[in-house]
Amino acid sequence: MITVLYFARLREALGTGSEALALPAAVRDVEGVRALLVARGGEWEQALASGKAARAAVNQAMAHDDTPVTDGDEIAFFPPVTGG
Amino acid sequence: MGVGMSVRIQTADFDVSAEIAALRRGNPKIGAVASFIGVVRDVNEGGAVAEMTLEHYPGMTEKAIEEIVDQARSRWQVLDALVVHRIGKLKPADQIVLVAIASGHRADAFAACEFIMDYLKTRAPFWKQEATGSGARWVEARASDDIAAERWRLKG
């Protein structure tokens, strides 16, 4: 299982801040997780498809689409940051 | 956290004078302290702002800022560094963030301070939401912040 977190506008659009997800053997990286969620359609596709502004972190470090993801990892999706 | 660095995420306000006094204490090698304070404005994108809420990613926020400060320490002489960033509900004129850098000389102190702010604006996981007369809206990231961060890219 992996833990997936959603923040800010993304959380509001998707209606959830976190979920536990079973990781299929074929899913090995952030792009794979993204595709899994996009396949849900609707808001998930709207918010998370490649090319959209949703950024990702794996185990609390900024990640790219090719960042590896393995069982037990924590992945977060969020809009571009606006701190400071 | 590395030696000579302090990063705090908190709801409470901070006392700039006390924080800088603590930063300077007991280190006679310090010849320069440069600092930045971010403040909530009462207007954004042409609309009045009544209240701002700062969301963050607990755990990652501290790590991300520590990493940014580490980068600054590897590029400039930083004897000590402090970053305090508030979260939760803030009002116009409230302090949001403090970055203070102690160095032997001013060039490194100024540069490290500006670098840390430019990188915090584009890499630290916070999200601002503003409450206006016509409802709540999430603040959009600015292209100018990405451009500011890009300036620091090392050549070659």
How would you describe the overall organization of this protein?
The complex is a heterodimer of chains A (84) and B (156). By secondary structure, chain A is an alpha+beta fold. Helices cover 27% and strands 25% of the residues of chain A. Chain A has helices at 8-14, 30-38, 42-48; strands spanning 2-6, 18-21, 55-58, 61-63, 74-78. In chain A, β3 (55-58) and β4 form a beta hairpin. In chain A, α2 (30-38) packs antiparallel against α3. The longest helix of chain A is centred in the middle third of the chain and has 9 residues, at 30-38. Chain B has 156 residues and is an alpha+beta fold. Chain B is 33% helix and 36% strand. Chain B has four helices and nine strands, in the order βαβββαβββαββα. Chain B has helices at 16-24, 60-75, 106-123, 143-150, and strands at 5-10, 32-39, 43-44, 47-56, 80-86, 88-90, 95-103, 126-132, 135-138. In chain B, the strands form two sheets. In chain B, strands 3, 4, 6, 8 and 9 form a five-stranded antiparallel beta sheet that branches. In chain B, strands 1-5-7-2 form a four-stranded mixed beta sheet, sandwiched between helices. The longest helix of chain B is centred in the last third of the chain and has 18 residues, at 106-123. Chain B is globular and about 50 Å long. Chain B starts with a strand and ends in a 6-residue tail after the last helix. The mean pLDDT of chain B is 94. The interface between A and B is medium-sized, with 16 and 27 residues.
